[in-house]
Design a protein that fits this description.
Elements lengths: L1 E5 L4 E4 L4 E5 L2 E4 H24 L3 H26 L1 H4 L8 H13 L8 H19 L3 H25 L14 E10 L5 E9 L2 H20 L8 H18 L7 E2 L2 E2 H30 L46
Length: 338
C-alpha cells in the first residue's frame, strides 16, 4: 500500500483511498468527483462571463454541453495516441470481432484513467470555433470565456493526480518535497507494516495547480475587467499556461514522449509562441480600429444595445421587443415623425 508524506512541512505519512464512495457494485473515484466539480464550476464561470459579454444564456449553456463532451473525447484521444504502444491498446490475440471490441474498449475506457489536458483543450477550441460560427458569435469571444473555465478545470483536476499518486516529478530534497512510501501488507515482528521503499519527489501536480490558480485570479480579478479586444484573455492563457507547463513538464517522470521529445513541453513552447504572436496581431488591429472609429474603438459586448450597454444575457439585442408606439395625430410633412 502506498502512503504520502510531506516531511519538510511536518506532515507525516497518510493514505488516501482512490475510491470516494460506492453505490452497490458501482465505485466512484475521487478523480471523477474532482473532474465533475471542476466542470460544474467552469460552467458557472462561463455563465457569469457570458453575461458580462452579453451572450445569451441559451447559447452558453448549449456550448457548455458540447465543449465538455468534446473535451473528454479529445483528452482521451490525445492520451491514447501518445501511449498507443506503451499500453498495448491494440488487441490481436482473438477473433476479428473480439479484437475489434477489446481495442475499442481500451480506447474509450476513460474510467480506467488516462486523460491528457492538451487534447481536451484542442478539442474544446475546435468545438468553440464551430459553435461560434453556427450561432454567429465572434469565436474569439468564446475563446476568451473558455480560457478561465479551462484554468478552473486544471486547478481542480491536478488534485486528482495527487490522489492517484501520479504526475509527480523527479527526486528532490527541497523542503516541500513529497514522500511516496510503499508498505508491505505483511506485518513485522512488532506488528507494524514494513516499509519497502521510499522516495521524495517534486509535487509537480501542486506546482501546476498553483500556477493555474494564480493565472485564474489574474484573469478574473484584473484582466477581464480591463479587456480591450476579443482574444486578449485567450492569448494570456496561451502564454501563461504554455510557459508554466513548459517548465514544470521538465521535472516530471511520466511525460508523454514522441521519440526523445516531451510532447507537453513542446506543445507548451508552441502555445507560448502562438500566444505572443496572436496577441501582437490582435493588438495592432485594435489600435488601428481606435484611430478609425469616432468612439475610440472602445470594447463592446457581442450583443450590445443601442444605448451602448449590453442587453440581458438571456435575450440578445436583436431579439428584444420595444414598447415604443407611434404617437397619434397627423403630420403636416407627409406623416414622417421627426
Amino acid at each position: 500500500m502506498q502512503y504520502l508524506s510531506f516531511p519538510g512541512l511536518g506532515i507525516p505519512p497518510f493514505h488516501i483511498d482512490r475510491v470516494a464512495f460506492r453505490i452497490g457494485p458501482l465505485t466512484v473515484a475521487w478523480y471523477g468527483v474532482l473532474i465533475t466539480c471542476g466542470m460544474i464550476l467552469a460552467v458557472l464561470c462561463a455563465v457569469r462571463l457570458a453575461k458580462r459579454e452579453g451572450i445569451s444564456l441559451d447559447d452558453i449553456t448549449d456550448f457548455a454541453f458540447y465543449v465538455i463532451l468534446a473535451g473528454v473525447i479529445g483528452a482521451r484521444a490525445y492520451y491514447v495516441i501518445f501511449t498507443w504502444n506503451k499500453y498495448g491498446y491494440l488487441v490481436t490475440n482473438g477473433s476479428f470481432l473480439h479484437n475489434l471490441a477489446r481495442t475499442l474498449y481500451n480506447c474509450i475506457a476513460v474510467w480506467e484513467g488516462g486523460l491528457a489536458i492538451y487534447g481536451g483543450v484542442l478539442a474544446g477550441l475546435l468545438c468553440g470555433y464551430l459553435f461560434s460560427k453556427k450561432r454567429k458569435i465572434p469565436f474569439l469571444k468564446i475563446f476568451d470565456i473558455l480560457a478561465p473555465c479551462v484554468l478552473i478545470g486544471q486547478v481542480i483536476g491536478r488534485w486528482g493526480n495527487f490522489i492517484n499518486i501520479e504526475a509527480y516529478g523527479s527526486e528532490t530534497t527541497l523542503p516541500w518535497r513529497m514522500g511516496i512510501l510503499q508498505y508491505s501488507s505483511a506485518m513485522s515482528g512488532s506488528g507494524e507494516a514494513m516499509l519497502i521503499s521510499e522516495r521524495y519527489v517534486h509535487p509537480t501536480f501542486l506546482y501546476e495547480s498553483l500556477w493555474n490558480l494564480v493565472g485564474l485570479i489574474l484573469v478574473l480579478a484584473v484582466l477581464y475587467r480591463r479587456k480591450k479586444f476579443d482574444g486578449q484573455i485567450f492569448c494570456f492563457y496561451l502564454v501563461w499556461y504554455g510557459f508554466g507547463r513548459m517548465l514544470i513538464e521538465g521535472l516530471r517522470t511520466d511525460s508523454l514522449m514522441l521519440g526523445n521529445l516531451r510532447v507537453s513541453q513542446g506543445v507548451g513552447f508552441l502555445s507560448l509562441v502562438l500566444g505572443i504572436l496572436i496577441f501582437t496581431i490582435l493588438s495592432k488591429k485594435h489600435r488601428a480600429e481606435q484611430t478609425d472609429q469616432p468612439d475610440g474603438g472602445d470594447y463592446k459586448p457581442v450583443y450590445e444595445g443601442a444605448d451602448g450597454e449590453p442587453n440581458d444575457a438571456s435575450e440578445p439585442a436583436e431579439s428584444k421587443e420595444t414598447d415604443e408606439t407611434e404617437p397619434e395625430g397627423e403630420y403636416e410633412d407627409g406623416g414622417e415623425n421627426h
